[in-house]
Each structure stands twice: as structure tokens, then as C-alpha cells.
Amino acid sequence: MKTISLGVTGHRFLADQERIRLGVEQAVACLLASFPGCKFRVLSSLAEGADRLLARRLLELPGSVLWVPLPHPEQEYRRDFSSPASLQEFNELLERAGRVISLPPAQDREQAYLAAGRYIIEHSNILLAIWDGEPAQGKGGTAEIVRLARLRGMPLAWIHAGNRLPGTNTPTTLGNRQGEFTCENFPPSGGKG
Q1: 127 SS3 class
Q2: Alpha carbons 131 and 120: distance in angstroms, whole number
């Protein structure tokens, strides 16, 4: 049985998550229609928000496994998760990982996140993104990872979702477009796009 590697990326702060989940279900349907009978390897750094939402759903697919490229050493990365609930969710998902990848040290935090995103792109066949379609608010952001995937001509399953107000953790919404789904470069049976 063929294994397809699914990289995930997306915004950390998400509004109107129920609409986003509906878009994720469309992305999963597209994957299953395009790659019937395949197993899936999910690559996620397990950041808060989109990374975890996608990883949890994709791990429900039969035979799926999780690979976790960490942008920082594990103990340092844990400091990125401010609440006990977030840290517990990270720990639960990390325990399910078939492989944890420790990346080489980076010059700064943004470079570390960019390195993790590049690892995901380099080891994936498809990218799933929860993204607003706008430029990144920092180096290694979702837009930059999507750009790298597009440069490679990778299939992209994109769930449209607001990001956050610049300089804050306040999530935004795309209104009626929140949760819309677009796929790019998928085989013809993979849905619209």
C-alpha cells in the first residue's frame, strides 16, 4: 500500500473553528478521492491552532502515522505553549508520534520555524494549509511555506481562514469565506480548484 506524506501548516490563532472544520472535512474528502487505498504520513510541528487541528483529523485516517519536526529542542519548544491545556494537547499528540525530528539549531526563532516548514515541504507529497491567502506576518509563516510548496508544484489543499490582527493574538475571520476549500495541482478526481 502506497504511503502519501501530508505536510500541514497554518495560522495559530483561529476564529470560527466550526467553519474551518467543515473545510478540513472537504480537504479530507479530496485526499481520499485523489489517493484511494493509500496510507498517510502526517508531518506537523504541532504548533497551536492549525497544526494541531489538521494533525488530529488526519490521524483519524486508517493507517496514518505522525512525524513531528521540532523547530526547537523539545523543552524550549514547550515554552511556546502558554496554557496548561495547550501543553497537555501538545504532549498527547507528541506521544502519538511515530517519529520526532530534532532539527539543527537556528540563528533565531523565525529561522527555526522556517527550517521546520522547509523540512515539512521537503518530506511531503501534499501540503494542507489553513491560511488567509495573505503574505506572512513573519519569517517562516504560513504564506512562506505555501509559497515553497507552490514553487515545487505540490498539490495544495487550502482551507481559507483568517489569521490574527498584526502584533496581537486576536484571531480574525474571512466572514463568509471562512472555511472555504480550494485544492491546487490535485489529480482530476480530487475535487474543485
Answers
A1: strand
A2: 16
H/E segment holding residue 63? none
DSSP structural state of residue 188? G
Residue 1 neighbours by CB distance under 10 Å: 6
Residues 6+ apart with CB under 8 A from 192: 181, 182, 183
Taking residue 102's Cβ as centre, other Cβ atoms within 10 Å add up to 12
What average pLDDT is seen over the chain? 93
Q: What is the reported pTM? A: 0.93
pLDDT tens digits, 96-130: 999 999 999 998 988 999 999 999 999 999 999 99
Q: Cα separation of 167 and 163, whole Å? A: 11
Question: Which CATH number characterizes residue 137's domain?
Answer: 3.40.50.450
CB 115 within 8 A of CB 106: yes
Domain count, the chain: 1
Name the residue range of residue 107's domain.
Answer: 3-190
**End-to-end Cα separation, the chain, in angstroms:** 27
